[in-house]
From TrEMBL:
Keyword Mitochondrion: no
Keywords recorded for this protein, A-Z: Hydrolase
GO molecular function: hydrolase activity
Keyword Nuclease belongs to the record: no
Superkingdom of origin: Bacteria
InterPro entries tied to this protein: AB_hydrolase_fold (IPR029058), DUF900_hydrolase (IPR010297), UCP033909 (IPR014586)
Organism: Bradyrhizobium jicamae
Name of the protein described by the UniProt record: Alpha/beta fold hydrolase
Amino acid sequence: MFASPHVAIAALVVLACCSCTLRPLQGVLVPSNELVEGASQVPILIGTTRARSGSDAGEMFSRDPSNEMAFGQVTVSIPPDASRAVGEIQWPLSPPGDPRKDFVTASAEYLDRAQFGNAITSLAKARHRSKAMVFVHGFNNRFDDAVYRYAQFVHDGRLPVVPILFSWPSQGAANLGSYEHDRKVALESGVPLVQLLDAVNSNPGVREITLVCHSMGCLITLDALHMKASRGGTTSKLKNVAFVAPDVDFDQFISQVGEMGPRRPRMGLFLSQDDAALKLSKSISGGSNRVGDINPDQEPYKSAIAQQKLLVFDLTHLGGDDAHSRAFDEISSVMGMLERRLAQGQQLGEDTSRTASAR
């Protein structure tokens, strides 16, 4: 059952992962050769089920699906902190942009599978990193959206990781047809995510993996982890999974997490009770409660969370205009928590202290 057309349209407007900041529709990933003192270079390794773009060199990968996993690497130049608002992406008005004040693509290249593995090893060695982080984006993301958002997340959070993006073929459009399309594609993307995790897990340069998903990307992540567990397999280096604003039915989530058994990685939920996007997603999906906007102190959520030993971070108190992307905008939430724990060698579930943002 769907909500009324007016509610559905409103839902799709606010379900977008990225901010409403205007950005170029083409050419974003065309590299710029201009170097600026104080700018930061953030390399993002990519595994994607998108097809190569045939119409826009600056798109790199399109919204069309591919039957095979493709690989790449994009290095994003982020302007000095004094010239930008931390927690935001400064899109250029027109590519390639000004690296003094804009996010700019410093380099972009396609890789084959072997080159992808070598790039992980090289980056881990060059940056003295033994931990990888795999990020799964959500609904309404173009490829360049996902790359720039992840670069912002890693940079502003000062995360000591090898960053790897899993990009699935979201349509990158906010309309009812695209939402239904994206959900269908998400439900078909668990297998390639498992394949990517296996590739990262087998890399000798990686000692530990953290998996972070956002919104509809958490549906893919849940499916991949459940699929792996149901087949009796494990991803031995995967230690932490962070579900950020998950657009997933709560009962489905708890059921599948429970079926993974005790060998599953530690799991953290990052939610906001005022997440309007997820409340509207609930309406579109026929009234099923979404994990990302529950009140964790109410039943039946409280008991179910305790039974599954999930760590919950309630970000409601942080405020801001966009609760659905709050975790990426606020340095004190997901980014700050992950930076502190990864830097100290801790896992998601090791800190049992009660803080303002953790329950």
